[in-house]
Amino acid sequence: MTTLQDTKKSSGNGGSAGNGGKDGRAISLSSRQWLGPVIALVLVIIVNGIISPAFFNVKVVDGHLYGSLVDIVHRGASTALVAVGMAIVIGTRGIDLSVGSVIAISGAVMAVLIRDTSLSPAIIILAALGAGILCGLWNGILVAFLDIQPIIATLILMVAGRGIAQMITDGQIVTFHGAFFEAIGSGYLVGVPWRVIIAAIVIAGLWAVMRKTALGLFVEAVGGNARASRLAGIDARGIKVLAYVISGFCSAVAGIIIAADIRGADANNAGLWLELDAILAVVVGGASLMGGRFYLGLTVIGVLIIQALGTGILLSGLPSQYTLIVKAAVVMIVLLVQAPKARQMMGNFWRRRNRNGQ
């Protein structure tokens, strides 16, 4: 392996020193996966600041942070949770269209238990998380053991899930009251929203598990080539099931936050179309829908980009429906940039430019 890498380096540094330096800088920039999403986020924030000079104003009111920047992070917390779970599933070359329904189911379980029982908050939260984990386990079994295509397997729960949530709530919007749960949705700790703290803890924990252990490599190996990973001794089916379980868990946490925020369970609208934002965030973060790689940190940046786009459109005074058009345009641009043909054309352009600059 070392010899092969040395050969690549020597062949890449062939030619004039000037050309090697330019190629080296181009390769260095292209290898920094974080650069594109970070630049995009900075540009969106700058444009928002131009549209509304008050965008950067952050103030403290009653010990709480307020401002557009804070609102982007605050509103993006639940989406970020769903998106990081989606990123892990996509890393296995899968997809999870049921995350919105899982949010509705988990929120419904929590709301009904709060209203109809006197169980402790810890048990209620565990029950809601368990519902999400069971949903993820169901998806994982369909994909890994029954070999159903992920988009079809998760579409089943996407359609049926809201019906299940409505059965749990008897078709009603269930409301509840409780200081503990209301704090999860709208409370603050040292000026920082609790929902942001919860999301940060979960995402940091997943990042540590995926990047500080071999599990992340196993996920990417299964996504890159499931058959080869099995020959290498990796339990590809188990990894796929685990990925969907993690996605279900993350969606359940988001469902708890969303239900706590509105102090009720709305089986029809909770998490509606949130799967599209999650997939978009993963793609904007640089992951390939063909599997084999995923980036949790960049996925969070993708969520912030999406949330900042929506905030900017609202600040500009345009109707909210323009948000969907902007998101569609972003998806198109990102997919075009990620297309192999586009990458090949870009590489040819840089090589021609470097040769002409000699």
From TrEMBL:
The chain crosses the membrane at residues 34-56, 72-90, 97-114, 120-144, 151-168, 188-209, 241-260, 272-289, 294-315, 321-339. Its main location: membrane. CDD domains: TM_PBP1_transp_AraH_like. InterPro entries: ABC_transp_permease. The keyword Transmembrane applies. Residues 1-21 are annotated as: Disordered. It is found in: Cell membrane. It is a multi-pass membrane protein. Residues 12-21 have a biased composition (Gly residues). Keywords: Cell membrane, Membrane, Transmembrane, Transmembrane helix. It holds the Pfam family BPD_transp_2. This is Sugar ABC transporter permease. The lineage of its organism: Bacteria, Pseudomonadati, Pseudomonadota, Alphaproteobacteria, Rhodospirillales.
